[in-house]
Design brief:
Elements (H helix, E strand, L loop, with lengths): L6 H21 L3 H29 L5 H29 L2 H27 L1
């Protein structure tokens, strides 16, 4: 797959799918819609994991690749812990719908940042 589609494109696709998942979850009115959103999560996560390994391989020197992969895994773990704690705190303060809206907005902002950063790297 990586030979046909560049790593940057795979990450952009994954980020877009994560955003679509958050958008679907925000607008979901039925459990079927939530399941549909989770299908986007499955594909996005699989692409992101694949692309992150290749991204490290392509952008970090050979002797630091193990460290780079460990940093990617560590940052994903810390982001998950932070977002779980923040989400629980926000749900206590606000409604679920408001937290889902914030999640969708943050996801969109992350999508824009990732597209912009790949554009800067390319130029």
């Amino acid at each position: 797959m990586n030979q046909k589609i560049s790593t940057n494109i795979l990450i952009k696709i994954a980020m877009t799918l994560f955003f679509i998942k958050h958008l679907i979850t925000f607008f979901a009115r039925t459990i079927s819609m939530i399941y549909l959103g989770q299908c986007f999560q499955i594909v996005a996560y699989a692409l992101f994991i694949l692309a992150s390994v290749y991204y490290v391989r392509e952008n970090i020197s050979k002797e630091d690749q193990l460290k780079g992969q460990a940093l990617v895994t560590m940052s994903m773990t810390l982001a998950g812990i932070f977002s779980d704690l923040r989400g629980g705190f926000l749900i206590d303060l606000m409604s679920i719908k408001t937290v889902l809206l914030l999640e969708t907005l943050f996801s969109y902002i992350g999508l824009l940042i990732s597209f912009y950063s790949f554009h800067i790297k390319r130029t």
